[in-house]
Design a protein that fits this description.
The protein is mostly helical. It has helices at residues 4-14, 19-33, 40-51, 58-71, 74-86, 92-108, 111-128, 133-144, 154-163, 167-192, 207-232, 238-256, 263-295, 298-309, 313-330, 333-350, 355-368, 377-386, 390-413, 416-424.
């Protein structure tokens, strides 16, 4: 079997073909041109089996839970709680933006949902208090990156399914990198406070005010505790945790907060179905391509090519980080993981890199790509919310991207940052 399917896939992508169709048309046209149509039934079987998976049910469930909780107005309560904790420091609203994103990440698991929900509330507030608009948008985009890193995480569910890695271990491994990015961003804001003449701090909230903010936000804060506690203690799997999240979100939003009923719930379910359908079709198509990558010998060829450059794992990890960062500039994190995971992961596992460690390197790197030009989706989301040009946002974003790249290399060359928690919990 030739590897023409790969070059056809690249060519289709270069001409702007949607990823799903490029994933299917590349292999299909290649087999047709090579006269190997006997593989068509196998491709269809792989496509169906790639979708027909119990673990993948976690993806639509987590999306649904995040949509329902967001409709319940939890964003405002999270922001107020974050403001009571860090609103008194110099550049307080920017610090609140980052901390709110870290908390919201434990509920939605989506960078776009994070940027949209937090941005709509905080970017106008930051602008009214004197923050430069590009800076406010840049902080929002950089902070939203932690959405898929701090668990729950849709892209980690996808990676775990495709590469047969424990989702619970991936969730535990994402906690420290997510916190490192958040703390790094908050430190950067403090350093930039004088350069951007950020507004002076507000009075420190009293403990009674913090208690009131916590009481208002406790229902939202309880969800990640239930999810992580249940998964890490072995009470339920990641898929079951996602179903629990939906049940909890429905109970809180509909019966406690008395919001999101009737037509609004129907819209939420419809939007979730559309998003989930797109993701599952991509998964099926990516599994098909991954099978061809293996049986055609392309994976071995790529491995040999990498090893011909250097057989030093430290050097190869540096090169693959550069590759993933560049890919992340042009391709969304989910499709990139589905396409590159089956190609790159076996190479590094063979060289002794822990599967969970490499998975987190890949997921974090490609997630940061959501905030990098020219195709970073978070840039366009925040540009729309802030009514600011992408170019101006990118200029303000550069110091934050530098911090996030530093975190990538920290977790790459200090595996304990990633592996200590899952090993302590007996998951890796």
């Amino acid at each position: 079997m030739s590897v023409a399917f790969f070059w056809l896939f690249i060519l289709l992508m270069a001409f702007g073909t949607p990823v799903f169709f490029a994933l299917l048309l590349g292999p299909g046209l290649s087999l047709l041109l090579d006269g190997e149509t006997q593989y068509f039934p196998a491709l269809l079987a792989r496509f169906y089996n790639g979708i027909d998976s119990f673990p993948l049910l976690a993806v639509p469930f987590f999306i649904l839970a995040g949509e329902i909780m967001n409709a319940g107005g939890i964003t405002a309560s999270i922001v107020r709680f974050a403001q009571s904790l860090v609103g008194h420091v110099r550049g307080g609203l920017a610090q609140v933006n980052v901390l709110s994103s870290m908390i919201f990440a434990g509920i939605s698991g989506s960078a776009v949902a994070d940027a949209s929900a937090i941005g709509k509330m905080l970017i106008p507030s930051m602008e009214r208090e004197g923050y430069p608009r590009p800076f406010a948008a840049a902080v929002t985009a950089a902070a939203a990156v932690v959405g898929p890193i701090i668990p729950p995480s849709g892209i980690m569910v996808l990676y775990g399914f495709v590469m047969n890695v424990s989702v619970g271990a991936l969730f535990a491994a994402g906690v420290v990198p997510g916190i490192l990015i958040g703390l790094g961003l908050m430190g950067t804001i403090r350093v930039l406070a004088n350069r951007y003449q950020l507004p002076p701090s507000k009075p420190r909230a009293s403990w009674s005010e913090r208690g009131a903010a916590l009481r208002a936000a406790w229902l939202a804060l309880l969800l990640p505790v239930i999810l992580l506690g249940g998964m890490l203690s072995g009470v339920f799997t990641a898929t079951e945790a996602a179903a629990v999240a939906v049940a909890y979100a429905l109970f809180v939003t509909v019966f406690v907060l008395r919001k999101a009923r009737g037509a609004e719930l129907a819209t939420i379910f419809r939007n979730t179905a559309l998003q989930s359908g797109v993701i599952l079709l991509l998964v099926g198509a990516a599994v098909t391509l991954g099978w061809l990558v293996t049986v055609s010998g392309l994976a071995k060829g790529i491995a040999d090519s990498l090893l011909s450059v250097t057989d030093n794992v430290t050097g190869l990890l540096f090169l693959v980080n550069i590759l993933l960062f560049i890919v992340g500039m042009f391709l969304d994190a989910g499709p990139a993981i589905l396409i590159l995971g089956p190609v790159l992961s076996p190479v590094f596992i063979e060289m002794g890199v822990d599967p969970v460690h490499f998975a987190v390197i890949m997921c974090v790197n490609l997630t940061i790509g959501l905030a990098t030009p020219p195709m970073g989706l978070l840039l366009f989301v925040t540009a729309s919310v802030a009514r600011e040009s992408v170019e101006n946002i990118v200029k303000a974003l550069l110091p934050f991207l530098a911090v996030e790249v530093l975190v990538i290399f920290l977790i790459t060359y200090f595996p304990a940052l990633v592996l200590t928690l899952p090993r302590w919990l007996g998951l890796a």
